[in-house]
Amino acid sequence: MNCEATKCQCGCDQETDQQKYEKIAEIIAKYKNQAGSLIQVLHAAQNIYGYLPLELQRFIAAGMDKPLAEVSGVITFYSFFSTQPKGKHTIRVCMGTACYVRGGKKLVDRLEDILKVQVGETTEDRKYTLDIARCIGACGLAPAMMIDDVVYKQVNPDKLETILAKY
Ligand code: FES
């Protein structure tokens, strides 16, 4: 999709990069002088932009008067920050103990095969991001996984394609 400075050429309602950066700039201005607010700003920026590419990290570093290395260091340290674009849907396969012993790894292997990505990656069509989780509260019905907010319990690897077809 090609976006001009203020209006998306495809006519959709999606915000342009410029609009997203303007929102992020407002958040930076709001938190800039609050000690320890970098994580909060990064969270908000990721919510708005979807992920935190280097260019955006530079923008935040400059706005917060911090070295780029500090901003990048925080992003690398916390697993909930991503420097890669996320898919429309996020699949999280539980690899907590109960799910692991009941076949969680098989689900991951099968999903990697079906989607042709590794854990942490996004499919080429940006439809799915594959991730793992550490217990999603369904241990009694392991192995479990989530797609966005929906929990799937006792998942059979042979049923994965049917589950994905719903999306
Ligand atoms: S270990 Fe998977 S839901 Fe708890």
Describe this structure in words.
This protein is α+β, with helices and mostly antiparallel strands. It folds into two domains: 17-77; 89-165, 3-Layer(aba) Sandwich (Glutaredoxin). The chain has six helices and four strands. The chain has helices spanning 17-31, 38-49, 54-64, 68-77, 97-115, 160-165, and strands at residues 89-94, 128-133, 145-147, 150-152. A four-stranded mixed sheet has the order 2-1-3-4, with helices on one face. Strand 3 and strand 4 form a beta hairpin. The longest helix is centred in the middle third of the chain and has 19 residues, at 97-115. Bound molecules: FE2/S2 (inorganic) cluster.
Q: How would you summarize the topology of this molecule?
A:
Elements: H1 17-31, H2 38-49, H3 54-64, H4 68-77, E1 89-94, H5 97-115, E2 128-133, E3 145-147, E4 150-152, H6 160-165
Parallel strand pairs: 1-2
Antiparallel strand pairs: 1-3, 3-4
The structure holds FE2/S2 (inorganic) cluster.
Residues 94, 96-99, 135-139, 142, 144 line the site of FE2/S2 (inorganic) cluster.
Summarize the model shown.
This protein has 167 residues and is an alpha+beta fold. It is built from six helices and four strands; from the N terminus they run ααααβαβββα.
